[in-house]
Amino acid sequence: MVNILVIGSGGREHALSWKLSQSSKINKVFTAPGNGGTENNIPIPVDDLDALASFAQKNDCFTVVGPEAPLAAGIVDKFNQMNLRIFGPSKNAAQLESSKIWAKNFMKRNDIPTARFEIFDDPKKAHDYVKSLSYNVVVKADGLAAGKGVIVCNSTEEAISAINTILVKKTFGDAGNRIIIEERIDGIEASYIALSDGNIAIPMASSQDHKRIFDDDKGPNTGGMGAYSPTPVINEILAKKIQEKIINTTIDAMKEEKTVFKGFLYAGIMIRDDQPYVLEYNVRMGDPECQPITMRMDFDLYEYLVASVDGTLSSMPAPLWKNQSAVCLVLASNGYPESYPNNEEITGFDLIPENVYVFHAGTKNQDGRILSNGGRVLGVTALGDTLASAISNAYAAAEKISWPHKYCRTDIGKKGLPHL
Ligand SMILES: Nc1ncnc2c1ncn2[C@@H]1O[C@H](COP(=O)(O)OP(=O)(O)O)[C@@H](O)[C@H]1O
Ligand SMILES: [Mg+2]
């Protein structure tokens, strides 16, 4: 039997390792570097590709990559050269996420609906451009900026200041050598994740994240304060449109252009007048979206990841999903996304009911005690027969968990309720 190596240390990776360890085809699941909730942690950082490859080789691992950075650095190409089995896109295919400019040009030439845009490296030309527009814009750094390189603007002045932040002050370093200025689309945001083997893509699930730190989507952006799946914001008609116009077109065009895409394809969508527009692609599961999505899986995830790598998804049965809602509530340390204390002991895990799973993110296990070790600490993830019951199950469970600086939003999932 094969072993699994999950790469990463967040809630997403705990969810993946939790789900994969349920497969009858798996011997042991390792996580590198993992967190206080994952088992068999291997202390190799996600950017040490050589050490990860040699661990995978010695331990006969099928490797599953959680975060984008190692994908953008070419971990899949490296493992393939060494004949190691690994799930995820190649470095070239990962450009869908690692270069927003690459992705926008790709969408443009393949008629994939997205906000109209221009690209700049000269601040003066960018200033003149935004002054000439009659609509609001979003200014985006080209490269990976840990979810911070996008500035949504409410006026020309804000746009000019955003241009200066990225192109002049270089707040995001080389990731901001070039920028996209695109039309701001005001609508409802949701995400749609599919699994591809390079030839076809099967839908995983729709979901909605909550990016801002405070209730009612107020305050600064974070890595995500909670998510639920499925989201009623994406109804059947819209799902069909997204699958056909966006996901299938993307997978076909990537194949056609010789950047075959294998892995999880995540489309960040804005819905305006019942039409979906792609805000961005991610080339991996979202975090926290991964947590509610894995909770709803009624199939052996490992078999599907193998089929993605082998290009055999079309011979797999349609994956079965629990006919329930799942809500993941992120418990953070107060002060996140700025500064916050670490090393506070967390208690209450023994009081969590059966329909709830607590995924760890910023935690560590010190001699059997679980200590906080990051801004986003836990993802309390609950199932329920309805969205409303999943929400109340998640909040009831989250109340059992405590540590001095625990913080969470009180409205996760609620924005889905009016759409039911
Ligand atoms: N064209 C747009 N119109 C309106 N809002 C946008 C647009 N592009 C991005 N946003 C907002 O900015 C957020 C971050 O942008 P995104 O492209 O997803 O980059 P990243 O996740 O890398 O920060 C989105 O989740 C969305 O809320
Ligand atoms: Mg995004």
Task: Compile the SSE list and pairings.
Elements: E1 2-8, H1 11-20, E2 26-33, H2 49-58, E3 61-65, H3 68-72, H4 75-81, E4 86-87, H5 95-98, H6 100-109, E5 117-120, H7 123-132, E6 137-141, E7 150-152, H8 156-168, E8 179-183, E9 188-197, E10 201-209, E11 212-214, E12 218-221, E13 226-229, H9 236-256, E14 262-272, E15 275-282, H10 290-295, H11 301-310, E16 325-337, E17 356-360, E18 363-366, E19 369-372, E20 376-384, H12 387-398, E21 406-407
Parallel strand pairs: 1-2, 1-3, 3-4
Antiparallel strand pairs: 5-8, 6-7, 6-8, 9-10, 9-14, 10-13, 11-12, 13-16, 14-15, 16-20, 16-21, 17-20, 18-19
Helix pairs in contact: 7-8
Bound molecules: adenosine-5'-diphosphate and magnesium ion.
Residues 268, 280 line the site of magnesium ion (MG).
Architecture overview:
This protein has 420 residues and is an alpha+beta fold. It has 4 domains: 2-88, Rossmann fold, CATH 3.40.50; 122-177, 2-Layer Sandwich (Dna Ligase, domain 1); 188-315, D-amino Acid Aminotransferase, Chain A, domain 1 (2-Layer Sandwich), CATH 3.30.470.20; 325-419, Phosphoribosylglycinamide synthetase, C-terminal domain (Glycinamide Ribonucleotide Synthetase, Chain A, domain 4, Alpha-Beta Complex), CATH 3.90.600.10. It contains 12 helices and 21 strands. Helix 7 (123-132) packs antiparallel against helix 8 (156-168). The chain is globular and about 60 Å long. The site of adenosine-5'-diphosphate has 15 residues, from strand 7, strand 14 and strand 15.
